[in-house]
Amino acid sequence: MFKTIEKRTSIRSYEKKSLSDNDKLKVKEILNVVEKKQGPFNNQVRFFFVENNNRDSGKIATYGFVKNPPAFIGGVVNNTKEGMIDFGFLFEEVILRLTEVNLGTVWLGGTFNRSDFDVEVGDDEIIAAVSPVGYSTSKSIREKVIRGFAQADRRKPFDELFFKDEKLSPIDESHKYSKYLKAIQMGPSASNKQPWRIVLINDTFHIYLNRTKGYGDKLKMDIQAIDIGIALSHLYLTLKEDNFDPVFINDKPIDLKDSEYIISGQMKK
Ligand SMILES: Cc1cc2nc3c(=O)[nH]c(=O)nc-3n(C[C@H](O)[C@H](O)[C@H](O)COP(=O)(O)O)c2cc1C
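Above: query sequence and flavin mononucleotide SMILES. Below: predicted holo C-alpha cells.
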C-alpha cells in the first residue's frame, strides 16, 4: 500500500476510450469489497458506478475540468462530520485499489445532484464525492497546467504537520514511525489544503483537524472531514501492511492550537 500511495496522483485527462469489460469487473469487485467495510466511526458507504456514455456533452463530463472520463464512481453516506470522515476512509481505499490496477482517478468534491448519477440519496444522506475512472493520458499539458494551479505536488513539511509528545516537539524523518506520517503527508486533500495534524505520543497517533477558515462554508457538507478520513486510511493501511494492528479510539491527550481533535490510532503489534 505504501508503494501505491506513492504512485497515486490525480488524473484529470483520460484516453478517449471505454473501460474494458475486464476493468469494469475489477472496479465493481473493488466497490463490492469496500462496501462491506465500516469507517472508524462505524458508517458504511453505498457505492455506485456509472459509465459516461455521453462523454462530450453530458453534465458530469464537466466536473472538475476532467477530460474524457469514460466512467465515474461515487458513494452515498450519512451527511454528518463522522459520515464524511468514514467516507474519506473508505473511498480512499477504493482509489488506492484502483491505482494498484493502473486505473486513473481524481477525487471530486462539491455538491452533486442525485439525478446526475441516477442514485438513491436519502434525506439525511449525501453524495460526498465522486471520481472518474479511466486510462490516464500521460502528462498532457492540460494536466500540468491544472496541477500547477492546484499546487498539487506541494506538501507541507513535517514540522508543520506532525508533533511529538505533549511538548509538541518536531519529528524528524528518521523517527521509527516516520514512514506512516509520510503516508499521511502524501495524501490527497481538497484544494491540497492538507488540514491534518498529528500528535504522536508513544505508540498512539492523535489526529486533529486544522480547518481552513471560510473554506467549504458554502457546501452542504464538511469537506475537510473527508480529508481526515483519507489521512486515517493512509495511516491504517500502511500500518496494517507492516503487521501492526491499529485500533481507533477516542483518547484526546491535549488541546492543539487552532485544531479540532478527531480520533486516535493506537498501535498494537
Ligand atoms: C475531498 C476532495 C475533493 C476534491 N475536489 C476536487 C475537484 O473538485 N476538482 C479537482 O480538480 N480536484 C479535486 N481534488 C483533488 C485535489 O486537488 C488533489 O488531491 C490535491 O491537489 C493533491 O494532488 P494529488 O492528488 O495529485 O496528490 C479533491 C480532493 C479531495 C480529497
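The radius of gyration is 18 Å.
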